[in-house]
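Exam revision sheet. Question 4 asks you to relate a sequence to its structure. Input first:
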Amino acid sequence: MPSTSQALVTKVKVQLKLAIARLRMVQKRDDALAKTQRRAMAQLLEQGKAESARIRVENIIRSDIATELHEILELYCELLLARAGLLESSPTCDPGLEEAVKSIMYAAPKTEIKELQQVRALLADKFGKEFLLAAMENAEGKHVAPSVVRKLSVEPPRASLVQGYLEEIAKAYGVNWPPRGKQEELGNPPPDYTDGGNDDENPSGGQAQKNLQATHVAEQSTACADDDGKREELSKATAPRSFGPKRPLQKMVDAGMAKKKAPAETSDSISDGIPDVNELAKRFAALKR
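Answer key, structure tokens:
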């Protein structure tokens, strides 16, 4: 017949298995609820209800902290289940199990997992009430895991944590929050165009821009003066008197025009004087032939 210690350890092992199964189920449930809550927070941010979202997002933060706590407790349960032989071998708690045992004792009454409370009661029967009180008081913080104590502390989340949660939710669901202004979208102006002082020797910012504009105006006036001078020089220029030697084609045209003008000059010379009688006689004689 098994001893009382062995029977107690057997009960602890059964409750540890049930606690692990319940912890995993609660984690899945909380994850599903967190997704729904995050979607609701994104809708609030999209509607411009940022203050309402800041208040409600604290529930999501607490749910995430509880999920992390359940993960830690699940690991401790698995550790005790794997080292169950150490529970049977000694009436006192083994140093390798002390942190896991006391962390479960400290966290069990502050969670909704009933199986963990059964494990706590069995472990208290195993190691005594003084051991249980030491775990609950957690004197000097040397017995319970610090991560378990932090996640069970009742404190409002920091403003930076709330802001970070809202920004991550908005980013995950494609919501433009916090809204970015035009200056933030376009970016900051370059340092050369921001006022940095009134030093004329080494100007910067707005003064440098004014100097650049003045230089540009001066260059334009100089260019206009150069154009006026060139126009004045062109107005004084005269047309060339000679265009160089005549080309062969021009010579041929001039010769043809001279031939056409020659008969007109002959007729003019004949019409100017009276025809000779002897010459007329010779023409008639030539016609008779």
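Marking note for examiners. The radius of gyration is 56 Å.
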